[in-house]
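Human: I'm a chemist; would you kindly supply sequence and structure tokens for a protein?

Assistant:
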Amino acid sequence: MTIIGIDPGPVESAYVVWDGVEILSHEKFPNDCLAARLEHPQTWFFNGPVCLVVEKLACYGMAVGAEVLETAWSSGRFHEAFAGQANRLTRLEVKMHLCHDSRAKDTNVRQALIDRFGGPAAIRAGQKSKPRKGLPETPAGALYGISGDEWTALALCITFWDSQREGKSDG
């Protein structure tokens, strides 16, 4: 199964496509374009079974503004546009799964993902120059290029993937 994880935003949203082994695609994209592409994910992302995981907005007792309401609107549009299995996970569920602590911050989630993919080598750039004689070429790390809100989108993918393997359905 391939998972599209989306960290929704009011104007642009970050997505990551994960197949359980590697990141197939990642980018921050305008919401209108992303919703349009979600209508036919096989033609844009890849072939095969696909499911969608979007960060679920949760109330923590604070007043919200227009930006949060626009984000909620975008999240609903993504679910509506996607014809396949659509799921939602809260940030708290992701933090508890990856960090085992509800007080974890985005930096803790990012570090948990880096550790899961092999430590600092996972985010390094590949060798851009010619390899020196007798030394192998250094490939880019599995997480090279992931930035900003894409970390949250990846965390959604990983959390959902693990929950499906453990037999828990968080949809």
Q: What stands out?
A: The first helix runs from residue 31 to 38. The chain has a mean pLDDT of 89.
